[in-house]
Specification:
The protein is an alpha/beta fold. It has 6 helices and 9 strands, in the order αβββααβαβαββββα. β4, α4 and β5 form a beta-alpha-beta unit.
């Protein structure tokens, strides 16, 4: 009797599996595709001194960071660390590095305000932004993201906290994680500067 019941249960489970395989179509399917690795790329954004073109910076190491001037913690911390790293380089080395701070808050960050903000940290940093569509396109190229957490005038923006290293050929080289100490950041910059020597 037990054997008959066991065989019946096995047949029932097999029939259920066949039915699921043929007829079950879940509405929320998860894609098995792997997300493409961010490739970076050239862009043109506005600054107080005119258009800033990544393509015009060939031969330099570019440090790219996405944020906004009223960010309460991540942006000033990251820009402060970048400033310390740049100050640790020799004069010849720092001339071969360009920082670019891309504001993801073009509605509040005017070009003049952006310029004052970044120059507070270091003269080798440009403050740039563009239309919401332009900013979104650049963040997507580099695999960054941002999102307004509130919609009133005092909103905050959640955003990617990493810095992006672009090599002398304009290719995305690597990411520097938020919280990386200035001396490690300086080491990575120096390593990239000396890569082809």
């Amino acid at each position: 009797m037990k054997r008959v019941a066991l065989i019946g249960l096995i047949l029932l489970l097999a029939a259920a599996l066949v039915w699921l395989g043929i007829y079950w179509q879940p509405e929320d399917t998860v894609s098995s595709e792997i997300a493409p690795v961010p490739q970076g790329g050239d862009f043109v954004l506005a600054s107080a001194d005119g258009p800033v073109k990544l393509a015009a910076m060939r031969g330099k190491v570019v440090v790219l960071f996405f944020g906004y001037t009223t960010c309460p913690d991540v942006c000033p911390t990251s820009l402060g660390m970048l400033s310390m790293a740049l100050n640790g380089l020799s004069e010849g080395e720092v001339e071969q590095v360009q920082g670019i701070f891309v504001s993801v808050d073009p509605g509040r960050d005017s070009l003049e305000h952006l310029q004052k903000y970044v120059k507070y940290f270091h003269p080798q940093i440009h403050g740039v932004t563009g239309t919401p569509e332009q900013v979104l396109a650049v963040t997507e190229m580099y695999g960054a993201a941002y999102h307004k957490s509130l919609q009133d005038e005092s909103y905050l923006i959640d955003h990617t906290a990493d810095l992006y290293l672009v090599d002398q050929a304009g290719k995305l080289h690597s990411r520097i994680r938020h919280g990386t100490p200035a001396d490690e950041m300086m080491r990575q910059l120096r390593q990239l500067l000396n890569r082809d020597r």
